[in-house]
Design brief:
Layout (H helix, E strand, L loop, with lengths): L1 E3 L6 H10 L1 H4 L9 H11 L5 E6 L6 E11 L5 E8 L8 H14 L6 E6 L4 H9 L3 E12 L2 E11 L6
Parallel strand pairs: 4-5
Antiparallel strand pairs: 1-2, 2-3, 3-4, 5-7, 6-7
């Protein structure tokens, strides 16, 4: 697995992966499923407040998913939000664990963040197990936190502080 920045030439493959994974993602995440939505992600990934990496399988350079650090705030706050998704054909094969481990290294290293927060729906047990295994701690519950697929969804708030990370 390797991480790399999204490129304009990724549009067709990335959109196809997300369309193929629509049922798998249903109600949990809404990654770009159109070229226009992909262009927005590409634009956002080039800003100072957001960083996005595509997860690429080394063997064949296939795109398997994405990780994004968004709403990056510097100064005395040094905090951001963590979001991620994987394509259905690549789920539960260790790609996301490897990708998040690398992104945490970047977040607490090069980006010099102090805190990273992940908001996860309670029914997404696999994602909760993953962040727990990486050292995140549950901080609370946020009713109707995020609108996904037209519905406001409850989320658990998980956070990792730089000093709590063992990377």
């Amino acid at each position: 697995m390797e991480l790399r920045a999204p490129r304009a030439s990724d549009a067709a493959e990335y959109v196809a992966l997300n369309r193929q994974s629509k049922r798998f993602h249903s109600g949990l995440v809404s990654p770009p499923r159109t070229t226009a939505a992909f262009r927005l992600l590409l634009h956002r990934s080039r800003s100072r407040q957001s960083k996005c990496w595509f997860i690429v399988r080394r063997a064949d350079q296939a795109l398997v998913g994405a990780v994004e650090i968004s709403q990056i705030v510097g100064g005395s706050f040094r905090s951001a939000y963590l979001g991620y998704h994987i394509g259905a054909p690549y789920a539960r094969q260790g790609y996301m664990r490897e990708a998040l481990t690398a992104v945490l290294q970047l977040a607490f290293g090069r980006l010099r963040l102090h805190r990273l927060e992940a908001n996860i729906q309670p029914r997404n047990r696999a994602s909760i197990r993953l962040v727990k295994s990486l050292g995140f701690h549950r901080e609370g519950y946020s009713p109707r936190y995020l609108k996904i697929a037209g519905q406001w969804r409850d989320h658990e708030r998980w956070a990792l502080l730089r000093e709590g990370w063992h990377g």
